[in-house]
């Protein structure tokens, strides 16, 4: 378990030396493996270096790194939100509809919940059904409070739970390229759809 939450770049500085020391090492069990079998290291700007474990709405454990190789449009939300979050999802859906078909087919749209208590896999599954989110395109995730806080910090998303269990939060949509690097961020609601589409199209190249 992590003992503290730190921004991605600071964490990367602390671990770069360790990667350099081990990059060329071959585990004994893989002495006969070919060099091509080893996955390429993530860049210093990739979110996919975060080690959090997430659970999707089917109850499956996933990592952010499993998204590697595809453009990703990501936002943080909570399913009991009645105003901003549905608009964020609406904006993401509009961006998806505006993508060229070939780009749309490979892009994944990811929603990560702030609400670690109420947004169980069942709650996320109900949200998917209510919002009619295609399981082939949309991924809904929940995580531990520490992992949620870490991801929010790296993305620059601010959120705060109030006494009623609701969240005040940033309205931020992030586009990641195939390697999990931030290619574009859009703040606000019902604006910047064309810029988001352009960023996703570039990230798909």
Q: Main beta sheet: strand number and arrangement?
A: 7 strands, mixed
- Helix count, DSSP H or I runs of 4 or more residues: 6
Number of domains: 1
Mean pLDDT equals 87
Percentage of residues in helical conformation: 25-40%
CATH topology: Glutaredoxin
Name the CATH homologous superfamily.
Answer: Glutaredoxin
Name the helix and strand elements from N-terminus to C-terminus, one letter apiece: HEEEHHEHEHEEEEH
Number of strands: 9
Oligomeric state of the chains present here: single chain
CATH architecture identity: 3-Layer(aba) Sandwich
Structural class: alpha+beta
Residue fraction in strands: 15-25%
Cα Rg: 18 Å
First-residue to last-residue Cα separation: 36 Å
Rough outline: globular
Strand order of the largest sheet: 2-1-5-4-3-8-9
Spans of 5+ residues with little confidence (pLDDT < 50)? 1-6, 11-31
Q: What CATH first level would be assigned?
A: Alpha Beta
In short:
By secondary structure, this protein is an alpha+beta fold.
Can you tell me about this structure?
- The protein has helices spanning 8-22, 84-98, 101-106, 121-131, 145-155, 193-203, and strands at 54-56, 61-62, 72-77, 108-113, 138-142, 159-161, 167-169, 172-176, 182-187.
- The chain is an alpha+beta fold and 205 residues long.
- It has one domain (48-203): 3-Layer(aba) Sandwich (Glutaredoxin).
- The longest helix is centred in the first third of the chain and has 15 residues, at 8-22.
- It is globular and about 45 Å long.
- The N and C termini lie far apart (36 Å).
